[in-house]
Write a structure and sequence with these properties.
2 strands, two-stranded antiparallel ribbon, mainly alpha, about 150 residues
């Protein structure tokens, strides 16, 4: 049976409320920490639709793995913490994510196309980072938290 977006958002709402409670936060503190208005954060805990970037902000504030919220909406049963091992793979924390992306692109290029010049590797890495920022997966410089 396919889980509808509504069912997934409801499951996410319950899990985020439980996680927020474990952190000892009120909704207002969760919203502030995520850089959201209380109205937007409350929409999430009510299972209403919000922009994808909202989930990214909540993931960073709650110390969740990138994409954890969407994974629950799409059928996952638990929120993955940044640093958790999932199927033998350690989920990276958001901190240092840009450097990890740059290194990953460089290593993939060296492994598959070793003749690509360093300048082109850097250009491709920056293109990947720009696309990840556009999708809300990596924060823009003005969105980065100071924590």
């Amino acid at each position: 049976m396919t889980t509808t977006d509504h069912d997934g958002r409801q499951r996410l709402a319950r899990l985020l409320a439980q996680h927020r409670t474990k952190l000892g936060w009120h909704k207002t503190q969760a919203a502030d920490t995520a850089g959201l208005t209380i109205t937007t954060y409350s929409r999430v805990e009510k299972g209403l639709s919000v922009r994808d970037v909202t989930y990214t902000q909540i993931e960073r504030a709650f110390g969740l793995a990138p994409g954890a919220c969407m994974a629950v909406i799409e059928g996952g049963i638990e929120l993955q913490q940044a640093g958790d091992d999932v199927e033998g793979v350690r989920i990276a924390a958001v901190a240092g994510l840009e450097d990890s992306v740059r290194q990953s692109v460089q290593h993939a290029l060296i492994a598959t196309l070793p003749e690509v010049p360093a300048g082109k590797m850097q250009q491709l890495s920056e293109g990947v980072l720009a696309e990840l920022r556009r999708r809300g997966i990596i924060p823009t410089a003005g969105e980065e938290s100071s924590s």
